[in-house]
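During the no-cost extension, the postdoctoral fellow (Dr. R.K.) reprocessed legacy sequence entries with the updated structure-token encoder. One reprocessed record is reproduced below for audit purposes.
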Amino acid sequence: MVPAASAADCTEALLRELGWQIGATSASTPQVHGGAVCERADLAEARAAGDLRVQLPRQWNEAQRQVFLQTLFDDPATVCAYAFELGEATRRATTQLQDNPGYRFSALQLGWIGFGIGGSRAQGWQGFRSFGRGYQPTASNSAALDAFYNGHVRSECGVGRQVAQLATQRELYGDTAFDAEFSPGELSIGTFLTLHDTDSILLGHHAGTFLADGKAMRTSQRGRQAFVGAPGFIEHVFDKTYVDDINNQAENFVIVDVSAAAAQALREHGGFAHYDRLNRRIWELAKQLPGHSARRFERLLIERDPGLRRALPAAQQAVLAELDALLDDPFYQGFLIYVHPRGIRPVGYHVVRLLDRNPRTPFAFELGLHNLHTTLYRRWIDARLRQCAAGSASHSQPEQR
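Re-encoded structure tokens follow.
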């Protein structure tokens, strides 16, 4: 049996695991240098830059150390260090979701979620709203998520976003802790309106404190890691009378990774509003290019099909060159999102894809409400401390599947 650890030992161990280097000083007050952790690519880069360093007065007793170390969980640098863990969990979750050929898209009129001939219970879920509008796990939470990793399920992209968010928590906690820490109601999936009336940790009664930063003005100033794992959507600007493909009227996403160049571009431009304007310019330019064919703009602007590009009239080559230049912006190339069932792709791909499917309206970006750095962060910290104190911290580590 693993012996239980003291609260002080567990606090210090978790802080060190997150990357803090804890030393001693002859000064009478703590010396803290959190650093620009959210701007780093990973923990190794943060440490190399001298981030996450704290020195505590040598004369402090254990109680004084414990009280102060607890305050470090509220330090923005610690939240950004946790974002490294969150980012890795997001990438594991979304990669497994995109790699499951059995997880497919279902048009809205066919129901939000379909579990196939065997029904939802055969794949670990039970419905609580009609027409596939609400489900929660029936047995273990991890087994229910396996339906989306390995089973045959159909849903539209809004549920795809919810599943990616919940799967990220599974990867962050590991199966044992994920099954123990969350109730079935907290892992509800369905329409967004349905979630508000549940115990959902995403949008329901147990979601706690939200960050509302639709145009990413604050997030862009924090750095690249502040984006990772956050939900959002790409939505038509003009009203629905300008939407030709109702099943592509919006694309719900989870942010998977942000390059240093993309983060710098977002910081310089103050968030998404600048890129909403560029989206409109891209849309205006695309309307000037003649011709119609399936996936035409994808082939022209993403795949850069040489034959299709040469076939453009000489007068349109300048328009094409401007489109290329706009889409080469680091944001369009280095801001990676997961959208069901498209998988993980740069956001520029989706802007171009929507030119083919809804050519009569431009699209805009929006971050969704999320609690990744507030309620869910504190729940993970508290869970890790409890597990450590009980001598079972290893259960919180991601398990190999």
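The chain is about 45% helix and 15% strand. The first strand starts at residue 21 and ends at 25. The remaining legacy entries will be reprocessed before the final report is submitted.
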